Amino acid sequence: MRENNFLDLENRKLFFENWLRLLSFVNDKYDIIEGFNHPTDPVGLNLDDVFKIREKLWDDVSIIDEYLQSEKLDSESFEIVSSWKKFIHKTFVIIRQLKKHCIFLDDDEDIVYGVKGISNPIGEHIPRYPFICEVFLIPFKDKIVYDTFVNAPYMNVSIVGNMKKGVNDKYIQIKKEKGITTRLE
Q: Do the domain assignments include residue 3?
């Protein structure tokens, strides 16, 4: 079976079921968005509202432990949500979209991450490569995904010429020496 560069339907549903329940818990606790109403599907959600709730979650990740203690979750959901405490929040350089994942370069740590999209390939949202962005990478089962938002504070910055060659050379070197990291342990 061919591996996609985004989650299959079953895993996508599982991701959003857990993600939206956690966000609803955060919203209920901090009363961030009136009328958030515990959504079960991301379609039609106000992204600004979701972003505000998500920011509060990452401001104090200990709320995940509160959520895990107060909610009755099956073992799979418990493991998934618990693993999100191992998030990585950084500025990355997105190098390219491959068949299995999108390539994120952590230039500071010399790590290349293979990141899956959730509902579609991440590359569909990237205007050019290499692309600088700020993102929260989170584990999902045996994969790396992101928390549904790619922040692009450097949207108008283009990496060209020798800089572009340097970034691509670094990616190739790290890939050769360390491989592509596809799991957050």
A: no
Q: What percentage of the chain has pLDDT greater than the value 70?
A: 97
Long-range pairs for 67-75 at CB < 8 Å and ≥24 separation? Answer: 67/22, 67/25, 67/26, 70/25, 71/21, 71/25
In a domain, 184, yes or no: no
pLDDT for the residue numbered 185: 79
Separation between Cα atoms, residue 35 and residue 44, nearest integer Å: 14
Domain of residue 94, CATH code = 2.40.50
Domain interval for residue 159 = 86-178
pLDDT tens for 49-62 read 999 999 999 999 99
Same domain, 103 and 23: no
**pLDDT, position 154:** 66
Q: Could you tell me if 80 and 160 lie in one domain?
A: no
